[in-house]
Amino acid sequence: MADAGRITRRGFLVGTSGALLALAAAACSSGGDGGGSTGSAGATVTDKYGQTQVGANPQRVVSVGYNDQDAILALGVVPVGVFDWYGNQPDATWPWAHDLLGGAHPAIVGTANTGIDVEKVAATNPDLILGTYSGVTQSQHDKLSALAPTVTQPKEFADYGVPWQDQTRIIGTALGRSDKAEEVVSAVQDKFTSVAAANPAFKGKTVIVGALKGPGQFGVYGPEDPKVRFFTELGFVNPPVTQQINNTNFAPISTEQLSLADADLLVWYAGGGFGDKLRAELDKTPVYKELRSVKEGRTIILEDEAAEAMTWSTVLSLPYALDKIPPRIAPLLTK
User: Fold this and answer.
1) Is 110 inside a domain boundary?
2) Distance, CA of 40 to CA of 11 (rounded, Å)
3) What strand order describes the sheet that includes 217-221?
4) Whole-angstrom Cα distance, residue 86 to residue 280?
5) Which has the closest alpha carbon to 186: 16, 65, 326?
6) What digits encode the pLDDT tens for the residues 61-74?
7) 209 is in which domain, residue-wise?
8) Among 110, 142, 177, which residue terminates a domain?
């Protein structure tokens, strides 16, 4: 994906986001296992490919997941290797998390375009490899497990579908920092609860989150996609059409099928600089203009830093998204 624009640190290090960063920074300086219930003897963690025994207090942690480094940093560990999802960010880490690197420069062990580079992972000499928000295959898992204990996506969810709460807790268990994981999860969950309570109009309204897949073709995110969960955690519900999206977080739909993509709120994700292309495609698609949500003005295109924070959906990015997105969508539901 193209660079979606540099976010200023000042914009992120305020309010609840700043409080959460302060909590994570305190964890970084605490040392030891941080009071985690599994810290003294290691832990057994289950993922899509079985059980993994992790040693106590791992020191050289590599993130091969698309956004796992955020939870790792929030729990007080600086990874020695990270995966570069998108955005051309320094150290492949966005501003909501970058300060927690403390000046470190983790190795880039893979990108969304090239995949995981096992040789680069090996070069970091890891003692734990984490990739919970990923599509790691059995073959990749086997190769990574030969280097160090490896914990990837949980079997209970679609690939790239682990909820941020589960992700943080899984990583907390693997790091021996379960207590800290509960602290940071609770802080973000409290903010979701507060924002939902302040916006009762969200409750029970249907939402669809879509994106441009290519010329003349769109796609709809399924219930397990983090962007969809962002809205359902605020009280929205999934319409029947999205319930048919199983074992994946995104399903393409043809132009003709757009008539099925109607809801009380229709959200288009256009991060990475795709906003203009999306608008051009929608403008020349007659069936889209006939949607009830379009005629009634209940659609929105999210394409800025708040959209990226929502997309990352981590304990470090979500507070910013919660500050910025709900105020934009609330007026649409009163039309």
Assistant:
1) yes
2) 38
3) 250-254, 217-221, 207-214, 265-269, 299-302
4) 23
5) 16
6) 999 999 999 999 99
7) 199-334
8) 177
